[in-house]
Amino acid sequence: MAIETDVLIIGAGPTGLATAIELGTRGVRALVVERNERSGTAPRAKTTNVRTRTHLRRWGIADRLAEESPFGIDYPNNMVFVTALGGHELTRFANAFNASPERSPLYPEHGQWVPQYTLEKVLLEKVRSLPSIETRYDTTFITAVQDDDGVTATLERDGERFDVRARYLVGADGARSKVRDLIGATMEGRHGLTHAYNIIFRAPGLAERHAHGPAAIYWQIGKDGFSAVGPMDRNDTWFFAPAGVPEGQRISEDDAAALIRQRTGIDTPVEILSADTWVASELLADRYASGRIMLAGDACHLHPPAGGYGMNMGLGDGVDLGWKIAATLQGWGGSHLLASYEAERRPVHRAVIDEAMANFAIYTAAIPPAIEDDSPEGIALRDRLGQSIQASKGREFNTLGTVLGLGYEGSPLVAQEPGEPPAHDSQTYVPSARPGYLAPHAWLEDGRSLYDLFGPGFSLIVSADADETEVSKAVSQAAEMGAPLTVVRPEGVPVAELYQADLSLVRPDQHVAWRGRDWDGTALARASGR
Known about the structure:
The chain is an alpha/beta fold and about 525 residues long. About 30% of the residues lie in helices and about 25% in strands. Helix 1 (about 15-25) runs parallel beside helix 4 (about 115-130). The two termini are about 35 Å apart.
């Protein structure tokens, strides 16, 4: 007999775990399966941005991730460009990705430099605290068939095959997604833009062997090419990622240690912990779903890591899918709700891929051999290159406009307002309560975030001057629909000024669905996909 659940999630990375948390916090049953133990030393990402940490705050685990910071939450998230770790500095960017812990009026949680495996540890702890969620590792997805009522998937563990019956299946199984192959989706774009090693090593005392001070990444641009090196975890654990590796080429531990010493210019003892390769691509799936089977994360979008978007964007997919599947299963989501997933997320993915590609361009530029020389020519080259980096790379490390500013303009779930949408600037975020965009943030007088007042379903933000009759209409309609609605009256927050409306309907994912003075009787139905 098949195992029964509401949602089967293939993949236990950040995307799959985020989907599970969204479902589990709403009491929806889900089974998360992963083909291996997801162990090892090599992180797949290191930047947890302000939006992702805001989701963690909503789940009650942002502080838990902060506790796991390997160097302390105050460690400077600097990006330092050098000819070599032991060589000349070219330029630097401070507080990349808004990781400084000072409070900002724009968001409730700062970014954090932390290995992805540490983030996954914290997410998994949350998943395992939710009684409706089950996880199974070392379990392989084989295939699935679907009908009008659900999906029957075949899985394998320890050589034994078994079936799982679910209402929906989410393929969060990465770049080589078997679920994507199953539904016949095709990745469109360019594969193999560059190949690089990802080498994790231990080098005691390396932080004291150079003159550039603490940083998250030292970007080495020297005569031998481009590479990145930086501290990754406790116990003198570092990463090293040289680009321009021939496709399919592997490296021995001895050669990896020698390459680290050569590129850093520091002769130091090195212990190689792991060495593998990765490939940068620019790919987007031609479709994200087939019936009750949906794709999320790297299964449907891939891009170079320039800007730190990938893992964070996948986690955002899980948030979007999670609340929509839960609403559909619980009866307050309409028949059009799940169809909005691709309509909303795919344009965001396209915009982020384009931004990552623009950031990636400098890494393929040719570097003159004299860049490391102590000659007048070398000094002049370094000065020009430093100025060029400052002019072109700020957008990669100052990403708030992209992280918080992209909205769901034109989505069938949000009210359409006249006028031009907010102008997009990848570096600068200007809050807007236009429907489809992230709800503007504010701090309350008691130190809480406005977001802390939002409920797990819809939230209605009410200004001090709002007509209570209109508020009552919204509450009554939500009750009739069975849609969860929390009325938010934030004392001390100038709601009418911040949101340019007396009433604002906010979705479970903190995006504005509608705003106005008089309640719109279609707003809640539209936002619910009815």
